Amino acid sequence: MHRFFVNPRQVDEKNKIIEILGDDVKHISKVLRLKEGQEVEICDGKRMEYYVVITKIKKDKIYTSIKEMHLSHREPNIQVILYQGLPKSTKMDLIIQKCTELGIYSIIPIQTDRTVIKIENSKLEKKKIERWQRICYEAAKQSKRGKVPHITEIKEWKEIWEHMEENDLNIIAYENEKSKGLKQLLKEIKKPIKKIGILIGPEGGFTDQEIQEAQNKGIISISLGPRILRTETAGFATVTMLMYALGDLGGY
């Protein structure tokens, strides 16, 4: 069954009506060619799911009637935030898509010393973020997420520290780390972990100065194994391992 996200303001539970607006109207009527009387899934982005029947299709709006509603159980019990050094080309598209499928909570693109792509034009940045958020939205629909992860504006290296203080645990992937791997770190953790931050560098990784600065901020450097992973692989490889160890990946 096809799934769509709506703003909670579009949900009228009292009268059992949900309105679908925006680009999804064209997608439903012109691309999928769904008709009145057919059923779809709708999520309000806050983990409420609705099974609805299409009752009326208009040019700019689709009306649906709620048949069933329940709380989504597709969101993991941990929040994983990816702080991703901006990669070249369209690698960020892949990172966003796969991390969304795996259950990422949010993604924060960052500029680092070795970031090749420098986005200094605010209009270009806005356009990129809108595109990334759309990729995130489509991936959330496909994987039947209970919410759409948020892609923030691009941050400078020194802007992320205050944000990371809100996490229960922060790690930074470092290819020269020899003393501790992610597997060992997770075994050592005794306190409950609900919010985890992952720092992944761009092509070329982090500089020694950046690693030292991160460690001084209490961020734990970890190895992801004996092989060097590309930036577009390292993020969702780490998310996968965390979701398996602490989340819901692999089943209950």
TrEMBL record:
Residues 75-242 form the Ribosomal RNA small subunit methyltransferase E methyltransferase domain. It is found in: Cytoplasm. One of its GO terms (biological process) is rRNA base methylation. It comes from the Bacteria. It catalyses: uridine(1498) in 16S rRNA + S-adenosyl-L-methionine = N(3)-methyluridine(1498) in 16S rRNA + S-adenosyl-L-homocysteine + H(+). Keywords: Cytoplasm, Methyltransferase, rRNA processing, S-adenosyl-L-methionine, Transferase. Gene3D superfamilies: 3.40.1280.10, Hypothetical PUA domain-like, domain 1 (2.40.240.20). One of its GO terms (molecular function) is rRNA (uridine-N3-)-methyltransferase activity. Its EC number is 2.1.1.193. GO terms for cellular component: cytoplasm. Specifically methylates the N3 position of the uracil ring of uridine 1498 (m3U1498) in 16S rRNA. Acts on the fully assembled 30S ribosomal subunit. This is Ribosomal RNA small subunit methyltransferase E.
